[in-house]
Amino acid sequence: MNNNQKPKIQSNGYNGSEPTRMCPKCLKTKPLSAFGFRNMGDGQIRNQSWCKDCRSKY
Protein backbone atom coordinates (compact mmCIF):
# COMPACT_ATOMS: atom_id res chain seq x y z
CA MET A 1 0.00 0.00 0.00
CA ASN A 2 1.59 3.28 -1.00
CA ASN A 3 1.02 6.52 0.85
CA ASN A 4 -1.83 7.62 -1.46
CA GLN A 5 -3.95 4.59 -0.52
CA LYS A 6 -3.84 4.95 3.28
CA PRO A 7 -7.06 6.07 5.00
CA LYS A 8 -7.22 9.69 6.08
CA ILE A 9 -7.97 9.63 9.79
CA GLN A 10 -8.80 12.69 11.85
CA SER A 11 -7.81 12.27 15.48
CA ASN A 12 -6.99 14.31 18.54
CA GLY A 13 -4.28 13.46 21.06
CA TYR A 14 -2.29 10.31 21.56
CA ASN A 15 -1.62 8.77 24.97
CA GLY A 16 0.30 5.66 23.93
CA SER A 17 -2.86 3.67 23.24
CA GLU A 18 -5.45 3.93 20.50
CA PRO A 19 -6.00 7.51 19.23
CA THR A 20 -9.31 9.11 20.22
CA ARG A 21 -11.64 11.73 18.83
CA MET A 22 -14.89 13.37 19.89
CA CYS A 23 -18.21 12.47 18.30
CA PRO A 24 -20.01 15.72 17.33
CA LYS A 25 -23.40 14.08 17.96
CA CYS A 26 -23.03 12.67 21.51
CA LEU A 27 -20.01 14.86 22.43
CA LYS A 28 -18.17 11.86 23.96
CA THR A 29 -14.47 11.18 23.34
CA LYS A 30 -14.08 7.66 21.97
CA PRO A 31 -11.32 5.53 20.38
CA LEU A 32 -11.09 5.53 16.59
CA SER A 33 -12.35 1.94 16.53
CA ALA A 34 -15.75 3.34 17.62
CA PHE A 35 -16.02 5.20 14.29
CA GLY A 36 -16.72 3.57 10.93
CA PHE A 37 -15.17 4.30 7.54
CA ARG A 38 -16.73 5.58 4.35
CA ASN A 39 -15.67 5.50 0.73
CA MET A 40 -15.28 9.04 -0.63
CA GLY A 41 -15.29 7.91 -4.26
CA ASP A 42 -12.06 8.21 -6.27
CA GLY A 43 -10.48 5.55 -3.99
CA GLN A 44 -10.24 7.70 -0.84
CA ILE A 45 -11.39 6.33 2.50
CA ARG A 46 -12.17 8.56 5.50
CA ASN A 47 -13.54 7.94 8.95
CA GLN A 48 -17.18 8.71 9.75
CA SER A 49 -17.79 11.85 11.80
CA TRP A 50 -20.41 10.26 14.11
CA CYS A 51 -19.54 7.24 16.25
CA LYS A 52 -21.06 3.82 15.47
CA ASP A 53 -23.47 4.12 18.43
CA CYS A 54 -24.91 7.44 17.21
CA ARG A 55 -25.09 6.22 13.59
CA SER A 56 -27.04 3.12 14.66
CA LYS A 57 -29.54 5.28 16.59
CA TYR A 58 -30.02 7.59 13.60
General description of the model:
The chain is mainly beta and 58 residues long. Helix content is 10%, strand content 31%. It contains 1 helix and 4 strands; from the N terminus they run ββββα. The strands form 2 sheets. The protein has a two-stranded antiparallel ribbon with strand order 1-2. Strands 3-4 form a two-stranded antiparallel sheet. A hairpin with a 5-residue loop joins β3 and β4. It is flat.
Give a brief outline of the structure.
This protein has one helix and four strands.
- Spatial ordering of strands, largest sheet: 1-2
- How many β strands by DSSP? 4
Low-confidence stretches: none
Instruction: Give the amount of beta strand, in percent.
Output: 25-35%
Principal-axis shape equals: flat
Profile the largest sheet: 2 strands, antiparallel
User: Helical content, roughly?
Assistant: 10-25%
Oligomer: single chain
End-to-end C-alpha gap = 34 Å
- Please tell me the overall pLDDT: 80
What is the N-to-C succession of helices and strands? Answer: EEEEH
Evaluate the radius of gyration: 12 Å
Class per helix and strand makeup: mainly beta
Count of helical regions: 1
